[in-house]
Amino acid sequence: MRRRRAQQDPATPQHERADLPALADREGVLEELVRVICEAWASFDVPRTAEPQLGEELAARLVAPLPEEPGGVEEALSDAVRVLDASVSPSRPLNLGYIGSTGLEMGVLASALAATYDANLAVTAGGADLVEEQALRWLSDFVGFPLAEGAFTSGGMTSNLTALLAARERALPGSRAGGLYGRRAAAYCSEEAHHSVVRAVEVCGLGGGSVRRIPLDGRRRMRPDALEEALYQDVAAGIVPVAVVATAGTTLTGAVDPLDEVADVCERHGVWLHVDGAYGLPAAAVPQTAPLFAGLERADSATVDAHKWLGVQKSCSAVLLRETGRLRAAFGHEERYMLHEGDVPNPVDRTLEYSRPLRSLRLWMAFRVHGAAQYRIWIRRTLENARLLAALLREAPDFELLHEPTLSTVCFRHLPPGAEDPDEHNLRLAREMQRDGRVFLAPASVDGRACLRACFVNFRTTPREVERVISVARELGGRLARP
Ligand SMILES: Cc1ncc(COP(=O)(O)O)c(C=O)c1O
Predict the structure, then answer these.
(1) Which member of 64, 84, 112, 245 has the greatest number of CB atoms within 10 A?
(2) 278 Cα–ligand 1 center, Å
(3) Which atom, in ligand 1's list, is nearest to the CA of 251?
(4) Positions of the region Disordered (predicted)?
């Protein structure tokens, strides 16, 4: 593993950098860090009864003013570990609330390495940018997207925004510099698209009110006929359609919009199709669910979060584009302090962010070390976990399954005898489960009915643990329902 140093000038002695002290005992501190990390990894497999509390004296230190004098690294490290240990971590196998991750070990190694070298990705980094591009290609191959260019971003929100800014520039050339010049524009997504789409439209300057929420079909998917109707109406009213955002895996129930039919509509109207697959797109890689994503290859752009169903740490999202040049058209700039060679742009000319970490290294390491086949096994397992939970709920007289799982999300209600208001009961149960700590579920609402929502994206979760979701909900819910 150790690299041999090339012939070079002697190292500058540390004492010449007197006010920039290195750790007095670098290796000792790193050994302690490694011990702490291994302990945390081991702890993820131990069921918890409740998240540990911060404790009063640590809580008091967290509101202390900026220290003027140096402090000990051991104490700072120990406080940081206690703070993180007391925080909700999606790496625990029964943390099924929201859309977590697995927190693969490769991601931790990659994060430490990327932070150590801190490569500058705004300009051609001499290697790190090649990793970035390879990770984008691997990711696109994995999900089946015909990549021309793309970028790693800080999250699904930023990936959606990046795509919409590129779409706006195609629909309204010059709008990035000149604004909309009084032109009216609109974007389209399903009623259950993630709120980040609305936020992205707002940031694009189109106005959040310009988002057309297209009604759902019986499988909670965007209705292409209603989309087409909305497009006709807007175009007739002189409104410019900027983009249609189809969701490939809604946050609430995992529904996948009919991409092929939506692509037909977009093609007829010449509108940019963006697929928000922040959560669901990795399921395009496994045969069981791949058919749901037919038409993805026709999209102009797609979002996929590696920090969700691909197991690496936050934040690591990617925006993928089918045509070269769209990102530069949206973000390219001539900076006098960032000259580039001829017409070859700097990487920063394809991204919204300037300084950014080498996020892609986490995914690159994970793909290299585990391989695509292992990923497919893991994803299939999470799909099976969702199906197992749905099957158990179907058989349980005191539970109601609110939808068949399309991907790995399941919404359900506990309906014990004695609970008079099911909405109130399920909201209280979600709070109680979070307090209890053994199983972390998110409260949600499907068709106005309050429920519990479990999302299986953690590769650590086992079928036995899936059964505990029901037993713990029944135990705590039963207690709440008893008069
Ligand atoms: C479908 C979808 N899009 C976008 C987002 C936003 O992603 P991020 O939290 O990475 O910004 C989410 C988050 O859950 C999501 O489920």
Answers:
(1) 245
(2) 5
(3) 16
(4) 1-20
